[in-house]
């Protein structure tokens, strides 16, 4: 039985989150840059303790995950779920596996990957995305043009590849923040 | 060194992505990702109000993570920032990757950077409480964690872009 799930899991911060009612103007402005659905979450309110970094990082995250066209959102969510598994972040995995399942209606395929790893993925496009995502996550220094060939073989163009690189890189960041600043509770 | 002395875009400067090149044009199609990656780098390394974590300490932490992540080119950039901030001694500490247990504030911060960068699941409430006991505020701790977690973003972004450059050459 794998420790990964797409059920909701809890997250408790190790530092006091900012209270929405008593937040400073700088903190509120930084939260405004974050994805609307998440800007009142405990996690973002914890990051709001340092508004300067949250404003930039929140806007970066928003663009990477939600910028229009290019790599379909479901693919971004699938990639970030695979990255989160590789980094051992149970919380991030659950969130992005769930979003992938909602967007793609492929909950069973996602569950198999959660249970058995992405080596069982039979869809060629998702398999190529998963292989590349794990490789760039675990051994960035070893990645070469040859690693992009399987992505090109399933038809990905330049903007899709760039979006995929952004997604993978973003979760090198997000998984470390989430695991360091709080406790995940299944 | 101030922000005005920095190249307009760290990633494009490091990778030699010339204005008007195909990769520059591609990045221009994701202007927010380009702008805020540079913005996050500047806010984390050279914030106007650094709180209790100096610019030199920030550069030392970024140097450490770049080395841990095996990106020597990025590490050299952070070493230059650190030297400009007068951090010769800090550079020696940051570049010593043996698992020492040296006392003092910077060694403790570097150990935290190692944990977040390489073994984030091993961070516990006691880890965070130890940073608070050193006099860091919640804001300082979030800033340090954001910084240490951002360098891995840069490393993978540039690894991916280098692979795309390699495709063009092939």
From TrEMBL, chain A:
<dbReference type="InterPro" id="IPR029032">
    <property type="entry name" value="AhpD-like"/>
</dbReference>
<dbReference type="InterPro" id="IPR010195">
    <property type="entry name" value="Uncharacterised_peroxidase-rel"/>
</dbReference>
<keyword id="KW-0575">Peroxidase</keyword>
<keyword id="KW-0560">Oxidoreductase</keyword>
<feature type="domain" description="Carboxymuconolactone decarboxylase-like">
    <location>
        <begin position="60"/>
        <end position="129"/>
    </location>
</feature>
<dbReference type="InterPro" id="IPR003779">
    <property type="entry name" value="CMD-like"/>
</dbReference>
<dbReference type="Pfam" id="PF02627">
    <property type="entry name" value="CMD"/>
</dbReference>
<protein>
    <submittedName>
        <fullName>Alkylhydroperoxidase</fullName>
    </submittedName>
</protein>
<dbReference type="GO" id="GO:0051920">
    <property type="term" value="F:peroxiredoxin activity"/>
</dbReference>
From TrEMBL, chain B:
<dbReference type="InterPro" id="IPR029032">
    <property type="entry name" value="AhpD-like"/>
</dbReference>
<protein>
    <recommendedName>
        <fullName>CMD domain protein</fullName>
    </recommendedName>
</protein>
């Amino acid at each position: 039985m794998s420790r990964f799930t797409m059920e909701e899991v809890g997250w408790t911060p190790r530092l006091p989150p900012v209270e929405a009612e008593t937040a400073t103007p700088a903190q509120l402005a930084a939260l405004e840059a974050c994805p609307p659905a998440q800007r009142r979450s405990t996690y973002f309110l914890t990051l709001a303790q340092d508004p300067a970094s949250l404003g930039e990082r929140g806007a970066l995250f928003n663009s990477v995950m939600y910028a229009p066209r290019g790599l379909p959102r479901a693919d971004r969510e699938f990639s970030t779920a695979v990255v989160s598994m590789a980094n051992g972040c149970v919380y991030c995995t659950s969130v992005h596996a769930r979003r992938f399942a909602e967007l793609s209606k492929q909950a069973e395929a996602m569950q198999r990957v959660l249970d058995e790893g992405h080596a069982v993925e039979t869809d060629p496009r998702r398999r190529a995305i998963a292989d590349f995502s794990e490789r760039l996550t675990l051994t960035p220094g070893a990645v070469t043009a040859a690693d992009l060939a399987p992505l090109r073989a399933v038809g990905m163009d330049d903007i899709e590849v760039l979006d995929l690189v952004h997604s993978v890189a973003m979760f090198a960041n997000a998984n470390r923040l989430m695991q360091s600043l709080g406790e995940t509770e299944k | 060194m101030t922000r005005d002395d920095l190249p307009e875009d760290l990633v494009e400067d490091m990778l030699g992505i010339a204005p008007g090149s195909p990769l520059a044009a591609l990045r221009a199609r994701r202007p927010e990702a380009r702008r805020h990656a540079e913005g996050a780098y500047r806010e984390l390394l050279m914030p106007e109000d650094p709180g209790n974590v100096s610019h030199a300490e920030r550069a030392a932490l970024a140097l450490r993570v770049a080395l841990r992540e095996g990106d020597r080119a990025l590490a050299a950039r952070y070493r230059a920032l650190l030297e400009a901030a007068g951090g010769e001694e800090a550079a020696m500490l940051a570049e010593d990757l043996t698992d020492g247990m040296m006392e003092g504030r910077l060694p403790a911060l570097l150990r935290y950077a190692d944990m977040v960068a390489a073994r984030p699941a091993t961070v516990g409430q006691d880890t965070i409480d130890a940073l608070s006991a050193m006099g860091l505020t919640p804001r300082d701790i979030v800033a340090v964690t954001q910084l240490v977690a951002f360098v891995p973003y840069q490393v993978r972004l540039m690894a991916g872009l280098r692979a795309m450059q390699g495709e063009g050459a092939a």
